[in-house]
Amino acid sequence: MFLSRYTNSSKMLHCISRMNSSTFKILNDIPTDNTVPQFTVGRKNGFLPWGTPLARLPEPFKIIDQILDEAPYYKRDGTPGLLATGSFGEYVRENLPLLDVSNIKDSALLFALYRDYTFLTSQYLLEPCHLHYLATKSKDYGLGRSRLPANISVPLVSLAKQLDAKPFMEYSCYATFNWEKIDPTSNLDPQNIRLIRHLEGSQHETGFAAVHIAMVQHSGELVSNVQDILDSVEKKDREEFDICLKKMLETTKIINVKMDTMWEYSSPKAFNNFRSYMMGIKSQPMFPKGVVYEGVSKEPTFYRGVSAANDSIIPTIDNLLELTNNLPDNSFTDMLRDFRTYRPVNHNAYLSYVEEKAKSIGVHAFATLDSNSTVLYQALLDQVSEFRERHWRFTKNYILKHSKHPRATGGTPIITWLPNQLATVMQSIVNIQSFIKEDKLSHENKQLYVELTKKANTQLRILNREVEELKKEYHGQDMDFQEVEGQMSKIAQSQSETTYGQAKSAVA
């Protein structure tokens, strides 16, 4: 596969060191140097950019602002945009010049351009898919465009190379570098967020992205918690360790509460109105032969779409608790690791650091030497389980009730992907009870222990039964789709060709 993850370590400045065997340097303060990569992990910004996302582009890039303002299905004034009329592709081919984006020094401008070219890419490639979905009401997406014109692909690949990123839309493009505060003095809560770029343009899309951004605003505390836990284990300080675990519990509970506000800000019925444009090329029947990036290579490329799996919050906790070691050795776990390459490079390095550090100092082993620490550790596992269970509930209500498409936006099997991780953490909650001696627990921790173990046992049984029932309705959920990448089954291809003509006018 061409254009795999680039190596560009020179972008990590002297104040931000790469992972090594013992340490990882994070930002303690907001930088004054505008060349510091925006997604450098910090105690204040966490997994958000350290600066404010650039909402409008300077000259000579104003044409991109103009096109993306006109693009959404619903523009800001409520009138139909280019995507609503099926004229986006033609408009971009005729009006977007081939701009020089090489050697961009300002990190905010660099990432804003990357964000905007990924929006152009997704909207261009997936415009016929969304039109097909709406026109036929067949709950499939037909075929996407198989070629990306050079006026998008050449600048995008250049920007991706400068960022050591994939030349396709990532979670950071769609959510965490795509916000403005309505009130600059207030927090990044959903009601105070306005999106810079839209795919569809409804309040439900804004709410969907805003809830994710609101969750990530607490990642600075999370990063601080992680660092403090690692320090306390290294010092073998039991009292400090337990205090840090409790702080981490409070942070994860806040993030889970924020996540649950999704129902308030974005309707399940509206999700499929913008989900089309979040799809990727990889493991998707809409792109049986991939996409050729014109002006870059004659070989087709395959990339995953926007997915919450690109976020760094839960993977960080997984690695801290050494939960990653318990994941089954299967294709789903391979996909999970593949998703790591679809996030900012410094986030990826930090995740690797946390994983290696937790293993080397033995976070799990230290926790399980004391029954009260083990219960707190178990409670953190429960918060990870809550997060994943809520994500699974969103999948059932926002997607499965309204679509039979067998793949998630990131290309993973829609039924079995999330339960693979969810079942692992539930089982870990059950298994860890073997380290706990009830007579050593405080009264508070004894109640917590009984509640958590009973809850995980029950949820695990329900999950297994639920997945087996749903697999009867969705085919290919146990197959590693990557093995057949670049081709389709005869049935899927026949279905796409039958309906392709209905949307062909928008594909040209």
Automatic annotation (TrEMBL):
Residues 490-502 have a biased composition (Polar residues). Keywords: Coiled coil, Heme, Iron, Metal-binding. Residues 488-508 are annotated as: Disordered. Pfam families: IDO (PF01231). GO terms for molecular function: heme binding; metal ion binding; oxidoreductase activity, acting on single donors with incorporation of molecular oxygen, incorporation of two atoms of oxygen. The keyword Iron applies. The keyword Iron applies. InterPro entries: Indolamine_dOase (IPR000898), Trp/Indoleamine_2_3_dOase-like (IPR037217). Heme b binds at H391. Residues 453-480 form a coiled coil. GO terms for biological process: L-tryptophan catabolic process to kynurenine. Belongs to the indoleamine 2,3-dioxygenase family. PANTHER family: INDOLEAMINE 2,3-DIOXYGENASE (PTHR28657). This is Indoleamine 2,3-dioxygenase family protein.
